[in-house]
Design goal:
alpha+beta; Cytochrome p450; 2 domains; four-stranded mixed sheet; three-stranded antiparallel sheet; 18 helices; globular; binds protoporphyrin IX containing FE; monooxygenase; heme binding; Cytochrome P450; transmembrane
Length: 512
């Protein structure tokens, strides 16, 4: 029997596991190890019905008071380990990244809908490694400044358009962030928010969220159901999966083929795709081409919702903390003045804005439970047994709300950071762990800075008014899901001066 086989029998025997070690070829012995603590499982179904469906990061954070920093759950055989401590997350996901860098397999999303091809959800295999190399080439620190112009101009367009129509905040954020990423990945300029190159990946991401809702798809619980043909009554999930797979394919291949055709016609650009085509002089094998296409769509998918969530959280924070907005504007006025708009190269000189942005990442992180990893072999940690195949969820929200490190954690306070090292502790957690850590981290920070600094330099963010003229201060309430958004709120934007409007108009209408 394999070591994991023995261990699993142990797990069934009331949380005590037997782990077998082998020294050389012959010496084998067993020690007793316990699984991490967690809520008592029910017979047969285990913890299936205890796993929170909504705002899980808050529930796991509450559970930390009872079970501690590492919690074990078992839902019908699928093991889940929630980590509530920064040190444990780093010990496992960073230091033992050779075995903690897989992604969980899912039948509905991964196999039937095809998301298992997309590099962000791919297993930790050779194709994924090649895709990561391609991404880091396009998004590494030394090529970041190549993207400043597009990040700044789209930020200026966003602010000008929201200034003219504050109700368009969500649409504009989506459109402008999507445009930046389309430009960087494919060299494509989005025509409007209805542009299919933008609409399709956005819908494809919504489908992904639905396809990964825990417990929503019977086929995830009983995988052999995947062999049932579409026409069998009750196999509606097969039709849904087929249409979602088709959309995923179109989202990935259509912009790629557009970029490739342009490249072959000599319309050069410095996009992620064109740069990779140039390396191979456009003669990619079909396998290499697939590697590139699925890597590219991950960049698109990884950057859209996360950036959007962060920008919307910034607006929410400014509505609730006007005094911080005043301080941030004052820093921009002092350092930049009124004669020009901020640029990404001003970041070093704007320490309060850097602290404010860090506080946005901490206050309500876009990905509060990270993107789950999974472990490829049995492991032990501080006397606890972590079975092979366990899904590992770092509760980043909890780590970033530790009152020992962040006193009054629910308050939005940029002043809490004494220096850049303290700020980096926040970004290190918000952008994930180990080999799967976000490859777009530095690029994303450029986009976020461009948007936030441009808004603060040119506008006052004010609460919307009710029919009686009273200010409506939005609640701090968030959606559930892997990537979270503030619940819908309204705001007004007032231009800080006619000069600011003139600068914005001129900049937003120029071409990159
Ligand atoms: C504020 C913005 C962003 C945040 C908070 C964020 C956060 C994250 C997190 C938490 C992960 C999972 C890391 C892990 O598994 O431990 C991730 C993965 C990823 N992110 Fe980001 N991200 C952001 C923006 C971006 C941007 C702009 C891009 C691309 C241009 C990007 C591309 C990716 C990709 C490709 C992955 C998958 C990595 C893999 O599985 O190997 N992200 N991101």
């Amino acid at each position: 029997m394999s070591s994991s086989g023995i261990a699993h029998i142990g797990a069934a025997l009331g949380g005590i596991a037997l782990l077998r070690y082998s020294l050389g070829t012959s010496l084998i012995f067993a020690i007793a190890l316990s699984l991490p603590p967690g809520p008592s499982p029910w017979p047969v179904v285990g913890n299936t019905f205890q796993i929170p469906m909504k705002h899980a990061w808050l529930v796991y954070s509450e559970w930390a008071k009872t079970y501690g920093d590492i919690i074990y759950l078992n839902a019908l055989g699928q093991r889940l380990v929630v980590i509530n401590s920064t040190n444990i997350a780093k010990d496992l996901l960073d230091k033992r990244s050779s075995i903690y860098s897989n992604r969980p397999r899912t039948t509905m999303a991964g196999e039937l809908c095809g998301y298992g091809e997309v590099s962000g959800f791919r297993q930790h295999d050779d194709i994924w490694k090649r895709q990561r190399r391609m991404m880091s080439h396009a998004l590494n620190q030394s090529s970041l400044s190549d993207h400043y112009a597009i990040q700044e101009i789209e930020a200026q367009r966003l602010v000008l358009n929201v200034l003219n129509n504050p109700d368009s905040l969500v649409h504009q954020t989506k459109l402008r962030i999507g445009s930046i990423i389309l430009h960087v990945v494919y060299g494509y300029a989005a025509k409007s928010e209805n542009d299919p190159f933008l609409v399709k990946p956005l819908k494809m991401l919504d489908n992904f969220v639905e396809a990964t809702v825990p417990g929503a798809w019977l086929v995830d619980i009983i995988p052999p159901l995947k062999y049932i043909p579409k026409w069998v009554p009750g196999a509606g999930f097969q039709k849904i999966a087929a249409s979602w797979r088709q959309l995923l394919w179109e989202s990935a291949w259509e912009p790629y083929l557009w970029c490739k055709a342009n490249y072959e016609n000599g319309t050069d650009n410095r996009s992620f795709i064109a740069t990779n085509l140039a390396v191979h002089e456009s003669n990619l094998s079909s396998k290499d081409e697939e590697t590139l296409v699925w890597g590219a769509i991950t960049v698109m998918g990884g950057g859209l919702d996360t950036n959007m969530s962060t920008v919307l959280t910034f607006f929410l924070a400014m509505l609730r903390y006007p005094e911080i907005q005043v301080k941030a504007c004052a820093e921009i006025d002092t350092v930049i003045g009124a004669d020009r708009l901020p640029s990404i190269t001003d970041r070093l000189a704007l320490s309060y804005i850097r602290a404010l942005i860090t506080e946005v990442y901490r206050w309500n992180p876009a990905v509060p439970l990270g993107i789950p990893h999974s472990v490829t072999q049995d492991d032990t940690y501080e006397g606890m047994y972590i079975p092979e195949g366990s899904i590992i969820m770092p509760n980043v929200w909890h780590m970033l709300h530790d009152p020992e490190i962040y006193p009054e954690p629910m308050a939005f306070k940029p002043e809490r950071y004494k220096d850049d090292a303290e700020m980096q502790n926040v970004t290190d957690l918000s952008f994930g762990f180990g080999r799967r850590a976000c490859p777009g981290m530095h690029f994303a920070q450029g986009t976020i800075f461009a948007i936030i600094a441009t808004v603060l330099a040119t506008c006052e963010i004010l609460p919307a008014l009710d029919p009686q003229g009273n200010e409506i201060i939005p609640k701090v309430a968030y959606t559930s899901g892997a990537i979270i958004f503030p619940e819908e709120f309204k705001c007004r934007l007032k231009c800080r001066s006619s000069q600011a409007r003139a600068l914005l108009t001129q900049a937003a209408n120029s071409t990159t």
